[in-house]
Specification:
- The protein is an alpha/beta fold.
- The protein has 27 helices and 27 strands.
- It has three domains: 259 residues, Rossmann fold, CATH 3.40.50; 325 residues, Type I PLP-dependent aspartate aminotransferase-like (Major domain) (Aspartate Aminotransferase, domain 2, 3-Layer(aba) Sandwich), CATH 3.40.640.10; 114 residues, Aspartate Aminotransferase, domain 1.
- Strand 12, helix 15 and strand 13 form a beta-alpha-beta unit.
- InterPro entries: Aminotrans_3 (IPR005814), Aminotrans_3_PPA_site (IPR049704), P-loop_NTPase (IPR027417), PyrdxlP-dep_Trfase (IPR015424), PyrdxlP-dep_Trfase_major (IPR015421).
- This is Onanonoxo-7-onima-8-eninoihtemlysoneda.
- It is found in: Mitochondrion.
Amino acid sequence: MSLLYKHLRVHQVFGANTDVGKTILTTALVRASAFTKPGAFYLKPVSTGSMDVADDEHIKRYTAPWKDRVFTECLYRYQEPVSPHLAVKLAAEQSGHSQPIIPSDETFVASIATHIRGCAAKIKQTSDMYVETAGGIHSPTLSGTTQVEAYRPLFLPTILIGDSKLGGISTTISAYESLVLRGFIVDSVLLFRDKYYRNWEYLQEYFADRGIQVTSLDPPPELLANPSENFVSTQQYYDSLMTPTAENGILTALKHLDSCHVKRLQELDSMPRRTLDSIWWPFVQHGLFKEEKDVNVIDSAYSDFFSIRTPPTDASSPPTSLLQPQFDGSASWWTQTFGHAHSSLTLAAARAAGRYGHVMFPRATNLPALKLAETLIHEGPGKGWASRAFFSDDGSTGMEVALKMALRAYSKRHNLDRASQKTLGILGLKGSYHGDTIGAMDACEEVGVYTCEWHNAKGFWLEPPSVSIQKGKVVVTVPPSIAGDTATRHEMESLSWTYDVQKRLSSELATVYKDYLRRTLSSLQARGSPRLGALVLEPLVMGAGGMIFVDPLFQRVLIDVVRNAEATPPSSTWSGLPVIFDEVFVGLHRIGMESTPPLLGVNPDISVNAKILTGGLVPLAVTLASNSIFEVFLSENKADALLHGHSYTAHAVGCEVANETLSLIKKVIASPEYTQAQQRWETSPGEASTVWSLWDPSFIDAVSRMERVSDVMALGTVLAIKLVDDNAGYTSHSAEEVFKPLLAPEDDRILFSSPGGAPFGVHYRTLGNIAYFMCSLTTTRGNLQTLEDKLWQILIPK
């Protein structure tokens, strides 16, 4: 991901199949580079078979005239002429080892990247490098992972060697599409000019429509029995390919590859200025960011990392990559589930796009949407209470749908006239955030910064008690408005105890909460304004409001009080006020649990899921509703229906990706890594904790004791660090300034590294004096440990 150099053009060579002339054509490229430039590098990561037929030996043999500037290397070599995954096993068996030592994909990729970086460091003049794979693009690597997957972290520009034989048109196009589906940049297609099958004629036209140059070259001569004669014949063949007058020859291909490299560099260099001149960023004050250095240019992304452009270095500095890895420390606005560019999700999207594209949804159905609705209702967050799923575009629109459902239900039950309906408000918590569309904004307190001229806050918002870890202690902080004459600071037995809502329902604090809520709601009812039509909560964690970890006991008592505000109807219908859970942020294991109702001990009437739902690939939201809410809209009068929709409602692509995401999540939460993370939070051996985090508990404890830290909290993938700041608030820049060193990748304390083995910087987001960090469900313990170490070093007293 971080292997782009100004002075070293690197291309990876993939073959559409085995025996397509990959090494012959790569040799021609190496010779052309050696002939026209100061140096040429060739790397064969894996070679199988005897040395006399090894590809790197072939390169050496036929680039002898330039041996002082052609550098070849093979990293893993095995004697048996079979697929690499089998060759490594056979080598172990032959040496008497029952368990072969097989390099992991991470080790394999890191060794390639390290070699490339070493080559780049050796030279200062413009040179070329070719990394030749083995077999076809889906041939297995040493670990058994197919090459197109294993090499993806390197993200090297690609040369595809097409198949000139019978059936070669199909294999070449299939190989190309497999590369494209995984994000590879295919710069050129090379193949032999077989005059009988004439595949090159068709492929030139096919790839011309896709802006890719096809170079066809004469095939090599027949292999001669006499080695000396064969060498001369082959040498003459290579020489013929380099004739400057040769139409569409290897020098033409080389020139094209050079132009692709230059174009990519120019595009990267121009993107900051072009961005500043044309883009209006969300949540950014452009008056504070006016320079090109302020633009974070993301060239690609893979796993938990961006690959970002680095500012050009001084000419006298050692040559370095123009890209560097950067850990995606906010899970790309809380959306990433398994990291970026997950091929299973990409293929799911392609599967649905190829089958459906976009199809109308009213009075229709499609299999991805139906499966997703059934899964969410019967197996997922709606299990046990929801009966219907309503699709929309994103979290904010999903909340708009939820509000319409709830307010209609309340209005109909109480026979409100039109004027009364217009003044209905919601009951919520201070600091809540439900999206940026007007209706979702109106459901939040107006004192926040998320506002606009039409924003008209409708409702009443309670200041919630919060949970945090302070100086090694789990503390519930109760606002004075709730505490009254009682304590505002309560030290808890443990984090697990704090989130054991059922046990805490009989506590004194539960009584304090209940008395306060009853008084407050009675007072509101007596005043008559605002009339409340729904309770809207972000369960457990209020994200954009400042990563506020709300005391779950308070939310449970609030729901109980609201639902007992009038004579309780049958349990199958909503009572008091319809209750909406906004689980856009916290849902689907973001905070270590699929959904919050089991922990709170109560179900909502309506809930909303988005973000993690589609693994961070495409936007989609689902609003789940109980049957009693659905029946409010049920009649033979169309005007009674929920007349709400989006052009891309139940988009088949999004639904198929969501189905794949939910399927993969099941595997992740059953994995040993996930289980080990949960075990680290056990209160005692074998006793599972109610709540846990992928972040290490000892690290959380240590950070909470630091002088600069007010408090810290972690659940699931989320870590929030609140700094001591007298000018705290959303507009404060204190956290952003303190954690700025995270942006730099140079760090001697590095423990683990990004794909490809390079140190990494960290992209992070702040909310005033609060810095939050978020990983995916599959972030490795090693990378989290590295990030924890970086955070520790920043916060430690200087």
